[in-house]
From TrEMBL:
<keyword id="KW-0012">Acyltransferase</keyword>
<protein>
    <recommendedName>
        <fullName>N-acetyltransferase domain-containing protein</fullName>
    </recommendedName>
</protein>
<dbReference type="InterPro" id="IPR000182">
    <property type="entry name" value="GNAT_dom"/>
</dbReference>
<dbReference type="InterPro" id="IPR016181">
    <property type="entry name" value="Acyl_CoA_acyltransferase"/>
</dbReference>
<dbReference type="Pfam" id="PF00583">
    <property type="entry name" value="Acetyltransf_1"/>
</dbReference>
<dbReference type="InterPro" id="IPR050832">
    <property type="entry name" value="Bact_Acetyltransf"/>
</dbReference>
<keyword id="KW-0808">Transferase</keyword>
<feature type="domain" description="N-acetyltransferase">
    <location>
        <begin position="1"/>
        <end position="161"/>
    </location>
</feature>
<dbReference type="GO" id="GO:0016747">
    <property type="term" value="F:acyltransferase activity, transferring groups other than amino-acyl groups"/>
</dbReference>
Length: 336
């Protein structure tokens, strides 16, 4: 087993083809109902990062199988320079032969050399990745419920009604591919309410709480081939952003929408804004992304008012997602 660096800036079409093969074989084996990945902007997807961040990738080669798996590690900057997130994908035929262990060892060594204290990854609860990470010393840090909305099952007249249930003093605006410059500051202020709202530990929220980070984040998504859609509720007397919801469609998996953040500022809660904004989003997606088949969203297991909103829109709870985390020095000791 050999693990070699994978550099998306120099990789050729064969190497990207191998990357896709690994992803799609893994998906077919572990999550057969999930959409497959397609050959569109993979290089951008793997190489573009936020300023101050970097992503390093590796390929594992097996003497008998050839390309056996891939891994990548995203190293955050600024306040999060102590940590990183990673992914490991092993082809079904190459499993149980130490491929995953070899990729994890390489990336943990790199994380240690770069001074990272912890690394984490997300896994779907029904896949073999759970046993692998628990065996290798990771602890479950976050559990979330993923829900899916199949667009073929949507009652569009009901959704259109829900989207209209906004009374004065609010108006809804839909923005695609970015936000008007003058909204950035107000949008980021409302988004900062999520700092203490999610399942993460205090201080671990990595979202955009100021206009500069928001602008960088939108540019990064665009650079990676991820199309952003945003619905904003504006309080008409003050022109403040009372609430927002964001959804992303990746060029690499264009039939699946990823619901990102939804938040209503505390002073504007209980007016039905979350339901109206999310319903409006769905109506816009019908024409903006006609190839879309479903939308996925994640909620914390407890105290999630969004679960009620999602149920009203027709989302069905699907599988749990776990975030696994390990302290890098202990992980390396265990791997030796
Ligand atoms: C999880 C995964 C990386 C394991 O790869 P692998 O090459 O089969 O793992 P290895 O052969 O290196 O196994 C390393 C150790 O983990 C153990 N292990 C591997 N899979 C396991 C499982 N499902 N349950 C329990 N232990 C497991 C092995 O027994 C081995 O233990 P040992 O070294 O102490 O003897 C692979 O199954 C995979 O790619 N899964 C999909 C990844 C995924 O879900 N990505 C995220 C999608 S969102």
């Amino acid at each position: 087993m050999q693990v070699r660096d994978f550099d998306p800036s120099t990789a050729d079409s064969t190497a990207f083809g191998d990357w896709l093969t690994v992803l799609n074989e893994m998906t077919a084996e572990d999550m057969p109902d999930e959409p497959r990945w397609c050959d569109d902007r993979i290089a951008d997807y793997l190489s573009v990062t936020m300023p101050g961040e970097s992503r390093i990738a590796w390929t594992a080669y097996d003497d008998e199988i050839g390309v056996a798996g891939h891994a990548n590690l995203l190293l955050f900057g600024g306040d999060f320079a102590h940590t990183g997130v990673f992914e490991i994908f092993v082809r079904p035929a190459a499993r149980g032969r130490g491929t995953g262990r070899a990729l994890l060892t390489e990336l943990a060594k790199h994380a240690a050399a770069d001074g990272r204290e912890t690394i984490s990854t997300e896994v779907i609860a029904t896949t073999p990745a759970v046993g692998f990470y628990e065996r290798l010393g990771f602890a479950r840090a976050v559990v979330e419920q993923r829900s899916l909305l199949a667009l073929s099952s949507v009652d569009w007249s009901r959704i259109a009604q829900q989207a209209k249930q906004v009374s004065a003093p609010y108006r809804l605006e839909y923005h695609r591919g970015g936000l008007p410059e003058e909204l950035h500051e107000r949008y980021a202020t409302t988004k900062a309410n999520l700092r203490t709202a999610g399942p993460q530990q205090a201080g671990e929220w990595r979202g955009s709480s100021d206009a500069v980070r928001l602008r960088d984040s939108l540019a990064t998504l665009k650079g990676r081939g991820m199309r952003t859609h945003m619905v904003v509720a504006v309080h008409e007397k003050t022109e403040q952003v009372a609430g927002l919801t964001e959804l992303v469609v990746a060029a690499q998996r264009p039939t699946r929408g990823d619901q990102y953040d939804t938040v209503v500022a505390p002073a504007h809660r209980s007016y039905g804004l979350a339901l109206a904004m999310k319903a409006r989003m769905l109506t816009e997606l019908r024409s903006a992304e006609p190839q879309l088949r479903d939308v996925q969203t994640w909620t914390a297991l407890e105290n999630s008012p969004l679960e009620h909103v999602n149920a009203q829109l027709g989302f069905d709870p699907d599988v749990q997602w776990f975030e696994y985390e390990a302290a890098v020095p202990a992980l390396l000791d265990g791997l030796r």
